[in-house]
Amino acid sequence: MMKDFILKIAKFMEGRYGIDQLNKALFVLWFILETIWIFTRFWLIGLLVLIVLFLITYRSLSKNIQMRMYENRKFLDLTKRFTAFTDLFSKKWKDRKTHRYIKCPYCKAQLRVKKLRGTHTVHCPKCGEDFKKRIII
Ligand SMILES: [Zn+2]
């Protein structure tokens, strides 16, 4: 009985797109909107909740895989700068006792250097330039 049900679901999902990063982000958005909706009961938020739910359902059940992949790629491109920023921020936080993240003045690459007090000559592995950096703890 249960097995039949799972098989039916699997058959239904065959050739359908499923979950990607964009759908996960939409799910988070839905959760936030739903929470606001519960507290405010503001009609516009309620409408947005429905739209986002529709988008998630539509995208995950869609059979136009190419188009959904294209949308997801666009979404990842748009959010790349933001995720790069948050990634760097969490790395900085994790390494805060042992390393410093500095920017190469020539090519703007992010470099990770040991946190040692004093003035050091830093060699940038990306552009090959050397520059001086003073580290104050
Ligand atoms: Zn450089």
What features would you highlight for this structure?
single chain, 137 residues, alpha+beta, 2 domains, two-stranded antiparallel ribbon, two-stranded antiparallel sheet, elongated, binds zinc ion
Strand content: 15-25%
Structural class: alpha+beta
Hetero groups: zinc ion
Globally, the shape reads elongated
**Main β-sheet, in a few words?**
2 strands, antiparallel
- Stretches where pLDDT is under 50 for at least 5 consecutive residues are none
Radius of gyration: 24 Å
Task: Note the total helix count.
Answer: 4
In brief, what are we looking at here?
The protein has about 140 residues and is of the alpha+beta class.
Written account of the structure:
- The protein has 137 residues and is α+β, with helices and mostly antiparallel strands.
- The chain folds into two domains: 13-94, no CATH class; 98-137, no CATH class.
- 59% of the residues lie in helices and 16% in strands.
- The strands form two sheets. A two-stranded antiparallel ribbon has the order 1-2. The chain has a two-stranded antiparallel ribbon with strand order 3-4.
- Helix 2 packs antiparallel against helix 3.
- Zinc ion (ZN) binds next to loops.
Q: Which helices and strands occur, and which strands form pairs?
A:
Blueprint: H1 2-13, H2 21-40, H3 43-61, H4 65-94, E1 99-103, E2 110-114, E3 118-123, E4 130-135
Antiparallel strand pairs: 1-2, 3-4
Helix pairs in contact: 2-3
Bound molecules: zinc ion.
Residues 104, 106-107, 109, 124, 126-127, 129 line the site of zinc ion.
